[in-house]
Design a protein that fits this description.
By secondary structure, the protein is an alpha/beta fold. It contains nine helices and ten strands. The structure holds adenosine-5'-diphosphate and zinc ion.
């Protein structure tokens, strides 16, 4: 058996599988303090012999396996989690752990089994508790000095909302993540009516970031996932804004072919985490 864990800021998904596309059992666990979250995850795997475990984790997290801090979360992106070693905390499940970011894992899942198959340059964007982006070049994550932090790039402000990123306030994530929508409108994003002006603003803010990703990476596909993208009316609004802002500068792939929803529904991250074991 193989195991997978998608460790998110709001929820974790753990799964036991025969192969990434054959999940036997899966559990959603809400992300609380590290101790109780890890103990719930570990007991989920109690009755299984796990040969290898793929983890796609929120970050920022040290991915360099040669570093003494390998597996350590290095910022307070979620209260109480700074300094926690994700790999050590889960090593009782198996000694064979493969770690990547949640978004690289989701991109990997989509590349192997979903909407990103055969893409030379694939971008996976999650718009959830935070905004994160994984870029795969010929199926391999773009690795820099540290992993990419595209959610923290600067985008124009469109009104006087000051943003909620703890570090930068009005970076892309600070302006357009799920919790930033809740802070801006005083109600959870899932409760906002489809006709609310919030969605027009959200679509424009998301399009700013996507234009930057297009300019920087020239991807042949951008897959949008995460909780906020459960709002199905949002994708066409984002595409319209990207077309308007790009303004026919150079030809793009037909925007509705370039920017798409996930092929694996909400399972990109967990299928991708399981796929890490095949690396
Ligand atoms: P995680 O960030 O833990 O991986 P999600 O991608 O599901 O989890 O993101 C959770 C966030 O997405 C919530 O905080 C909320 O802001 C937003 N969200 C979840 N469901 C919806 C929905 N149906 N409509 C709009 N926003 C949602
Ligand atoms: Zn930020």
């Amino acid at each position: 058996m193989i195991g997978g864990i998608e460790l998110g800021g709001t929820k974790c998904i753990a799964a036991v599988a025969e192969s990434p596309d054959n999940i036997l059992i899966k559990k959603v666990i809400s992300t609380k303090d590290p101790n109780s979250t890890f103990s719930e995850i570990v007991s989920f795997f109690d009755n299984y012999e796990i040969k290898s475990l793929g983890i796609g984790s929120f970050g920022p997290i040290v991915l360099d396996s040669k570093s003494k801090d390998y597996g350590v979360l290095v910022a307070e992106s979620k209260y109480g989690w700074n300094g926690v070693n994700v790999v050590n905390s889960l090593s009782c499940i198996t000694s064979n752990i493969i770690l990547d970011t949640d978004v690289n894992a989701a991109a990997y899942g989509e590349y192997n089994y979903g909407a990103g198959q055969n893409c030379k340059t694939l971008a996976y964007v999650t718009i959830g508790t935070g905004i994160g982006v994984g870029i795969l070049l010929n199926g391999k994550p773009h690795v820099g000095n540290f992993h990419l932090e595209i959610g923290h790039m600067q985008v124009p402000c469109i009104d006087d909302f000051e943003g909620i990123c703890k570090t930068h306030r009005n970076c892309w994530e600070g302006l357009a993540s799920g919790p930033s929508m809740e802070s801006r409108w005083g109600v959870e994003a899932s409760k906002l009516d489809k006709t609310h002006v919030a969605w027009e603003k959200e679509a424009e803010l998301l399009a700013f970031g996507l234009i930057n990703i297009i300019s920087n990476h020239s991807p042949d596909k951008i897959i949008l996932g995460g909780g906020v993208m459960k709002q199905k009316h949002l994708l066409p609004m984002i595409i319209e804004n990207v077309e308007r802002l790009w303004n026919n500068y150079i030809p793009l792939i037909v925007p509705s072919d370039l920017i798409v929803e996930t092929g694996l529904g909400g399972d990109s991250g967990i299928i991708g985490s399981l796929t890490l074991t095949k690396k």
